[in-house]
Design brief:
The structure is a single chain. The chain has 402 residues and is of the alpha/beta class. It folds into two domains: 19-164, NAD(P)-binding Rossmann-like Domain (Rossmann fold); 169-332, no CATH class. 45% of the residues lie in helices and 14% in strands. The strands form two sheets. It has a seven-stranded parallel β-sheet with strand order 4-3-2-1-5-6-7, sandwiched between helices. The chain has a four-stranded mixed β-sheet with strand order 9-8-10-11, with helices on one face. A hairpin with a 4-residue loop joins strand 10 and strand 11 (272-276). Helix 5 (122-130) packs parallel to helix 6 (141-157), helix 6 packs across helix 14 and helix 14 (336-352) runs antiparallel to helix 15. It is globular, with a radius of gyration of 20 Å. Bound molecules: magnesium ion. Magnesium ion is lined by residues 165-167, 236.
Length: 402
């Protein structure tokens, strides 16, 4: 049996006008997606932008819409509707979560780049997959919180989940053409985030500004904090195990401070295939949009002689207890990862708001998880109920800290 390919085989044919929706267009993934679209347009691989969504930065949304001329946009709050409609008179303006669902279901949409942050990405992902539309997933939370449901939706309609997160994208590329039974484990690389090499006792007083200073990747604030706690890596363990149908214990994390090797796959004969490239999301985004073909990239190729040397080390689970918590949630499966994701979103928001300390993020997550009664194979309503319950529990725990 071939290794699970969330994409299916891919047929290699690409019309020059596939319709794309960019969700979260003013965030880090969104902005990089436009660099990629620009680059592809120069190579006659242009995608037609059907719709854009933005949770904030309305002026930037308007600029992007003037440039890419979508037929619809979606904004987060109704207060911005008048401003956006006046600036974009030819554009249909949707709003809120219903608007996100409507956007991915518009006629002429072939692929959705999901650059949303957090749980808000779940329902539009399900709506897109249900319609048979491929989703290029940078937003890992939908898979973490509702992996079974997301994969079921894709399997039923034949839609594909195209990994955009750099590590699953790297694994997917290493696995193409390989057989499942030949894989012994997936090796997920982690930069170690802002505080790698720092003792846990030194982290009690660190500020959001320090935690937001990622050594190698430039990303949005939520994922940068998740990198500093290694929760992002733990979520990627769950994400990879779902996408490639292996147990979380077959996914090993290795610290790799240069972020040049984006992940690796080990086979039963001991061979390891690695994916190397620049530390830039343009590469996995472009691959998701052009696969199985490749087009010239927007960046200069990696110069290995300039990189010089690469380092790998085992993560210290005592230093990064969030990683162990994610393995535990991944083993339990069912509704447990959804509870952990929701608690973590609340805890990170509280840390960024200065309400709790950096180490409290883990304590909050652990407290909520210890109270959660897991359910097997939850449906969407159950997942949303668990999400709401875990947020409430997290907030009441947070209130005891401040
Ligand atoms: Mg990643």
């Amino acid at each position: 049996m071939q290794a699970p390919d969330p994409l299916g085989p891919g047929n290699g044919s690409r019309s020059s006008q596939r319709g794309v929706v960019v969700l979260g267009c003013t965030g880090s993934i969104g902005e990089t997606t436009f660099q990629v679209l620009d680059n592809l347009a120069k190579q006659d691989q242009s995608l037609h932008v059907v719709a854009l969504s933005a949770g904030g930065r309305i002026e930037r949304l308007i600029e992007l819409a003037e440039l890419w001329r979508p037929e619809a946009v979606c904004i987060a709050v109704p207060e911005d509707r008048q401003r956006v409609q006046t600036a974009l008179p030819d554009c249909e303006v949707f709003c809120g979560e219903d608007g996100l669902r409507a956007l991915v279901q518009l006629d002429g949409v072939d692929v959705i780049v999901n650059g949303l942050v957090g749980a808000v990405g779940l329902e539009p992902t399900l709506a897109a997959l249900e319609m048979g539309r491929d989703v290029a997933m940078a937003n890992k939370e939908p898979l973490v919180m509702a992996g079974g449901l997301v994969l079921d939706h894709a399997n039923k309609s034949g839609a594909r989940i195209l990994p955009v997160d750099s590590e699953p994208s790297a694994m997917w590329q290493c696995l193409r053409g390989e057989r499942t039974q030949d894989v012994s484990r997936l090796i997920l690389t982690a930069s170690g985030g802002a505080f790698r090499g720092r003792a846990r006792s030194e982290l009690k007083q660190v500020t959001p500004e320090e935690a937001l200073h990622h050594p190698t990747w430039s990303m949005g604030p939520k994922i940068t904090i998740d990198s500093a706690t290694l929760m992002n890596k733990g979520f990627e363990v769950i994400e990879a195990s779902l996408l490639f149908e292996l147990s979380v214990d077959d996914v090993e994390v290795v610290l790799h401070r240069e972020s040049i090797v984006h992940s690796l796959v080990e086979f039963v004969d001991g061979a390891i295939l690695a994916h190397l490239g620049r530390t830039d999301m343009a590469l996995p985004i472009q691959y998701a949009l052009t696969e199985p073909s490749r087009c010239a990239g927007p960046l200069a190729p990696l110069n290995l002689a300039e990189v010089g040397s690469l380092h790998f080390e085992a993560p210290d689970l005592a230093e990064f207890p969030g990683l162990a918590l994610c393995y535990e949630a991944g083993r339990l499966g069912g509704s447990t990862p959804a509870a952990l994701n929701a608690a973590n979103e609340e805890a990170v928001a509280a840390f960024l708001a200065g309400e709790v300390g950096f180490l409290d993020i883990h304590s909050i997550n652990e407290t909520v998880l210890s109270k959660h009664n897991g359910q097997d194979a939850p449906d969407l309503d159950s997942i949303l109920a668990v999400d709401a319950w875990a947020r409430g529990q997290a907030r009441s725990t947070i209130s005891t800290y401040s």
